Amino acid sequence: MLLFILLLGSILYLKECLGLKILSKENLIWGGVYTAIDIPFFYTNLYKVSECLFFIFFLGFILQCFGGTIFNLEKKIISYRKISYYLISIGWIPYFYIGLSIFYFILIFLSIENVYVFVDDMLSYFSQIAIPLSLMIAFIRDK
Hints:
The chain is built from seven helices and no strands. The protein is mainly α.
């Protein structure tokens, strides 16, 4: 728990000191676009394509954090409000996976046993409910 608090504190420190746009609408939409495109490749076991998409997603995330822009997402948010709302609703999922991976590597570094079983169970359960639950909440809030 202490490591999670330290990780969160360091992210917030970087956000404040460097002016990073870590949790902006643009980043959430970028995560939603990645999630929507990656789902078919991931669930049909085309992992190489999924890894390439993740690499592109991660580069775009880094670019947006440091003030860059991808495909003028700010204009597209204004133009396509409805689809942007749903992309934002699932946009947090890849960032959760990144955070969970960092947490997993910290636990491995600390030599805590049975980490793989815990993280694998958590990811399998999470991957089954995250997207449908996020879209249902967005649909209910949109009405």
